[in-house]
Amino acid sequence: MIYFGDTARCPYGPRSPEEVRQFTDEIVAFLTRFPLKALVIACNTATAVALGKVREWLSIPVFGVVDPGARAAIKASSQGRIGVIGTEGTVRSEAYEGALKRIDPHLFVVSLACPTLVPLVESGEGDTKRARRIVRQALAPIKQYDLDTLILGCTHYPLISDLIRREMGPDVTLISSAEETAREISTVLHHKGLLHLSDAVDHGHRFYTTGHPGAFRRIAEQWLNQEVEVEQVALEPAVQNPIG
Asked: What is its EC number (predicted)?
């Protein structure tokens, strides 16, 4: 696996669609230097504004994180009352509302931008009194809607899912768009005969970031529960700009 985290320019949520497309273009250009089987846009905001163009550009399977999360939420929802939390960019794009309503136009869907949650995750603060207060304040506006399902519409949010679950209560099912996407990728690669299941061969993982390698490493090791090597890179504008 080759993972690229654009932590120097994170979060993407407050940025314009044009900026996000430019950043996505640069990252895709970097990643396609490697012999990829598939590419995952593991960012809801970038998925919302750039997925279609990246799929047109590349011949390999390209996955976003919105549709898998939407499908899982509909399957989990018993009353058809679904909430979405994400960055400003994801919520502004209405990508989840569109994905959900295309499947079932009669759903009740409400979305909420939570700009304070990504910085909380990036801080690595954990389950503290301050973290609980930030989560409580962020989710307060959406708790009034009597939801039965909540989509974690940002790939940072599963790292604080315990805090979110505690605040939303036991009657609300949390859907991680990231986890649902991982399941879909595994299925597609398996069907294409591209999934290596053997533990006998170490295919290796590479981690790249535009930000501080130490900060990236700390969060990655906390999440993966293993040591990782991280390389800092400076992205260059792509020769072409197929996404713009």
From this structure: 5.1.1.3
The residue that leads in pLDDT, 26 or 236, is: 26
The domains of the chain are located at: 1-244
Q: Is 114 labeled as catalytic in the residue annotation?
A: no
Select from 79, 145, 91, 147 the least CA-distant residue to 117.
91
The residue among 12 and 163 whose pLDDT is bigger is 163
Q: What's the chain's Rg over C-alpha atoms?
A: 18
Domain 1-244 in this protein, CATH class: alpha beta
> Which of 20, 28, 41, 43 is an active site residue?
43
Catalytic residue among 154, 159, 175, 238: 154
pTM of the model: 0.83
154 is catalytic: yes
Which residue ranges make up the annotated binding site for substrate? 12-13, 44-45, 155-156
